[in-house]
Fold these 4 entries.
Entry 1:
Amino acid sequence: MSIVRDQFKRPGEEATLGLHIPHAVSLSPAKGEVFIEMVDAVSGEVLHKDHRPNVITLDAGILAAILLRDPDSRDHGFNMLSVGTGALGNTLAPNAPSPDQRKLNAEIARKAWSSTTFRDASGNAVAIPTNIVDFTCTYDEGEAVGALNEMGILSTLSSNPAILNPNPNTFPTRDVAVDLTQYDILCNYLTFGVITKPNTARLTITWRITF
């Protein structure tokens, strides 16, 4: 699927609600974008800010099919954000993300969402389900420290971030005979020029998906 660019408003708002991805209708027309902000934990100074489109992987379509066929067959839909240091290509301008990607190349941390927020077509937070969802995750001081250049949304088998069940395929390998029900599934993937996160900074990532 090609990268799609869209503009929305106010990614930082939160709403008190839950999201259960197994009841999503389809990922085939889905599109996404990512808002990134890193601030100094003491002063609040903005150290890095970015907004860019992402790639929805081919495996996201398989996850949708799994959950539509049997919503109870998998405990989690989009439930964690993974960050890493393994984007291929030039450090400042890595290779574009591919929909064939099945896991991060060098994952260093993953974490569950701090909030999920439904939004209307104008980008306003709403308390009823819509086809636009913000998934927000914050890595605090001491978390995900390193030269980050890749990230992705996961559907994991375990709710414990320390328990990894990565797909055995390494990009560009994509064996369609692999049974994804046995592994964590990478649903969205993004590469970017290095963001060096020190242990004194907080990194907040909002991944907006429009279904």
Entry 2:
Amino acid sequence: MINTLKSNKPILFDILCAIITAFLFSSFIYLEDLGITIKLINTIFGITSLALLLYISKRAILMSGFLIGPLWFYWVGYSFEYNGVGYLSPVVTLIFAFIYTAFFGILAFTNKVYIRAILLFALSFFEPMDWNWLQIELIFVESYIGVFKYQLALVLLALTLPTYIKSNYKYAPLILIFLAFNFTTPNQKDSPLKIKLVPTDIKQDKKWKSELKYPTINMIYMEITKAINEDYDIVVFPESVFPLYMNHKPMLIEQLLRLSSKITIIAGALLDENGTNYNVTYMFTKGKYAIAKKLVLVPFGEYIPLPNFIKQFVNDTFFAGASDFKTATKPTDFMIDGIKYRNAICYEATCQELYDGDVDFVIASSNNAWFSPSIEPTLQNLLMRYYARKNGVTIYHCANYKGTGIIK
């Protein structure tokens, strides 16, 4: 095992270490985005990236964090274009660079490997600005290593101990890594009901245009009819596939209720309730309907995670007042022919809150067109696999743009 690299190394060496660390820590996302899933490579790259974070110099730690932020989240600012502040996109990318410089920079307070290992493990519990998409265990989601906390702890322990063993067997603790391997698979069931997922590819700058509203509704009717003819039990559409406030359209609701006598329809729309906006899922089944409100909102997309004295200013100035959605107080379960399906809308499908309690099946819907083209749908899919496997859940995910599929 290498000794901790001191900051008196040439800066070019530190830059090289930072680039390699950031690349290895992020590589699984880009390989997956290219359709390449090789568990051995992901295992080696993931373990090596953690080893580097434990042993590289303080300066290299800071630079690697500065690179990891944009490598994972360069796409977040893309959505700002649709709020009329697209010029902020590069600023948002830079903000993520600084956030993760600070995030990983905690490791730079020390050169002691065991303290860095403890801090890195502690960081796996921390979500800066309520943003939880950088899960350290996620680097192993498509590897031979498991995604549970104890498995991350075993890997960090195995990488740390050789520094403190002064004998011919100093590398023997690396065997602990094998104890972090997945030797079992989670018990994930298949839905007893036949579910059809209907992906769409509607550009975000077109989605809310009035001239597309009726063609979109006609497409939905056609897909429902097709699903009925194909003998499906449930047909699922993406988040906000209906570009309207559904509760303002009683005739549309009546038509969907009639169709629901033949098939259960699950589709996203908006809800205006006493002047409050909700991002919701409608379920129409057997002539009745239920509404699931979103539980977890997207930070800086649907709410502003800042103190009240600045929240309204940021919302009005940079989001045109759009980040003002409200939430439900608990997850919503749809009962369909005696089977329970947990509802999840986009971001919340990547949050542990949605998987608490007795959950076997999740029906998730997303609108990924906000971030087209980018790695966002791939990262979202990897995160859903992470939560599905940790919780023994099967996710039926329907998306606009990319990401539709059954996730285990």
Entry 3:
Amino acid sequence: MDLLVLESTNDEPVVRSTANRLGIGGPTAAKDKNDQKSGRHNTVGAVPSPGALPHSNTGLSTTSTNTVPGRLVTALPDRSASDDRVMYPFRIKHLGNRSFKADDNSYILYAPSQQNRMDWCEKIIQAKERHAQSLHAQNAEPFRLKVMADTAFGYEATAQSGPKPIIVRGTPLDRAIGEVEKMYEKAPGPRPGVICRASVNCATAFTVNYGREMIAIGTDSGVFTADAKNPRGWQRVGRPSYIRESLC
């Protein structure tokens, strides 16, 4: 459960070819010349057995293309297509794969219906939540997370495009975000805006007079510091040329 990530739950449905229905090759998505992502594909109706995920160097597309003989899946062109030909994909990622290619860690699974896909995704999330609760109850979590900055650093809207992350309740990250939200839930005034939109390169913690703990973050636009207990108290203190010398 620690290494399993649910990446998507609402991808567009696809249609499989007659060859797939006859059992000639596993289902796979089509690939166009603008999409070079790879993935691993399997159909889920029952629980897949370990190691049963065949690899196919294809990705999702809105057009149909013959990839391997006997394998053809196209984006759904007509919602009235026969139900037994429509498949509903969802993606998972295995974080334990040592491959240098990030796409090798991703798998695309296919459910026979939208409700079946929803059931699978809900069961995965529930299993991860139970696992997180168990680790927390046994004090067996390898790390405890703390939010360093919740509003100060951000990126342009174009850099944030893509599906929103799927929240798993009870994880160290979820609890850390909850602690910050609780800290500022009664804060007067609106939520502070972003003060730096440059890339964050590095960070470090240090102690100043009388044991006061501070945090410094190095970005492309300079160095920012804040009290370790104040995720919204960031101030710029250095130029970009100082980043590597002072932090890295």
Entry 4:
Amino acid sequence: MLKESIAARYSAALFSLANEQGELTETVEQLDAVVAAIHKDAALASFFASPVVDREVKQGILRRTLERKVSELALNFVLLLVRKRRETLLDIIARQMQELREREAGRQAADIATAKPLSKRELDLLAKRLSQIHGRTIIPQPKVVPELLGGAVVKVGDRYTDASVSGKLEELRRHLLAVEDLQAPLSPNGKA
């Protein structure tokens, strides 16, 4: 959670700067490409994340590798992360930049978990209803979680709604345990 909030400050600053310079789409795509390239090679990922590697060495290699492949803004941002020892935040920042761009465009992703796959029609209806509720275009990200038994669990931004059968059963179980605790007979000295 701490990483998310630290990354959010970097994301907001980069988003604002890239938007101001008219390079938002380019910057988001280039950060995604850098993240993908780093994760494609385990040795490169280890090198990039290593706190042992000297920052100057790391910056030199990154500068030579990325100089003609990404914009000056994207390159300087990655180098800044290395200089501040925040390079492990790059994945989070790239994701947050995507989310900020979607939000700016009036779109937002929604994680929708169901016990069985939803039909296209059901997914479209749910997305339409969620769009009305949230006041923006919702882009559904469906996944199947058989343990839910039925219903759905929906997460839009930081809002979480559990309307699953397993969630309702768990709620019922907690309620019954609470009622049972309240009805426990008192001992002769007035204690449970």
